[in-house]
Write a structure and sequence with these properties.
homodimer; alpha+beta; Glutaredoxin; Glutathione S-transferase Yfyf (Class Pi), Chain A, domain 2; 2 domains; 4-stranded mixed beta sheet
């Protein structure tokens, strides 16, 4: 595949999904670094790239794909990371939709606590943690009887959910109560070519480098 | 396709998506009516059908698919409602993910105002309407230059977004400011075999039958 360009933000788990898969597949890509907090998504030229002003965006020659889970689905076509049977593909899609729905709770908590716009002891934070926990409960249940989320191998269903689940402790959701999830995270990280280069939240973040990722 | 069973809730736009596509495709299906407010999703036997206790669920012989957008993707495989090219498929997926993300704002507003658990004048309602409007703005922008969301024909990207957008006025979001969306809704409703049998919100709802759908 030629002509891949990724508009990328280092500390974003959504962008991390794409970087992980590109490396697992051994694909070359141009990387355009977008500093969200520095205002890079607010320029007129970025509105041309993505009117929703979000990252990641993947350019494939003349075309652009937005939404991280649509990007990894596209990249995984005809590889082992996306099964070929219609039923298995529907299950992969189901977990991508689950991730958008449930990952959002963890994402918002982690980011807003991190940059100091949400008090971790507030009612809002408590409700979101509760929602995040319900999502983790569902994942744990699915992974108790199965090594990966769909079929026998690692698919984009796993990679998508990895992104926010592995940083759940930074959102105040420790993973110790979830042994199947911890086993599964380690399994994903053992895939040949796996690299996690998620950057820490920017300097104005309250939480720091001393935090244990799998707390 | 044989052995299709839909666990269905009449007033749910998510369930409506599946019913619309099944009829557009002329597929026979068993329909199991689930009265959510009557407690049907809270039984032990429904937890076996879907541990997340949501509708719709599609049974395909021995298998079950949850998440409305995963279900319609599955049903649309090898039909005109899902294009075959990888790039076009990624664009369809992108709009399914958009719908989950943005449709949720409209869904929550409509339901909670409808059953009286959210004051339409509250700060929470105002914020959600603002988010809903941003989603409608994005759709309008996309539909100004294109008859359907992806390619030249009606796809599951359109059907998924139809579900909540067509009831946006019930969430306090009139569609008059969105001419391209109104044109597109009518286009979808002209597809041969299209039936919209969305039931009104249940009797304990505040909003009534006198409401104009396209307000």
């Amino acid at each position: 595949m030629i002509g891949l360009r990724l508009y990328d933000y280092g500390p974003s788990p959504n962008c991390l999904k794409v970087r992980i898969l590109l490396r697992l597949l051994g694909l070359q890509f141009d990387c355009v670094s977008i500093d969200i907090l520095g205002g890079d998504t607010l320029t007129d030229s970025y509105a041309q790239v993505n009117p929703a002003r979000r990252t990641p965006v993947l350019e494939v020659k003349e075309d652009r794909i937005v939404e991280s889970n649509a990007i990894i689905w596209f990249l995984a076509e005809s590889t082992s990371f996306l099964p070929s049977g219609p039923l298995e593909r529907a299950q992969v899609l189901r977990w991508l939709l689950f991730e958008l729905d449930r990952g959002e709770d963890i994402a918002a908590l982690r980011f807003r606590i991190g940059v100091g716009t949400l008090d971790p002891d507030s009612e809002d934070a408590r409700k979101r943690r509760e929602a995040g926990r319900r999502g983790l409960d569902q994942l744990e249940l699915a992974l108790r009887s199965s090594q990966f989320l769909v079929g026998d191998g690692c698919t984009v269903a796993d990679l998508a959910n990895y992104a926010y689940v592995h940083v759940a402790p930074e959102a105040g959701l420790p993973l110790r109560p979830y042994p199947a999830i911890l086993r599964w995270l380690a399994e994903i990280e053992r895939q040949p070519g796996f690299v996690n280069d998620l950057e820490p939240l920017p300097e104005n973040a309250r939480i720091g480098a001393g935090l244990s990722i799998y707390g």
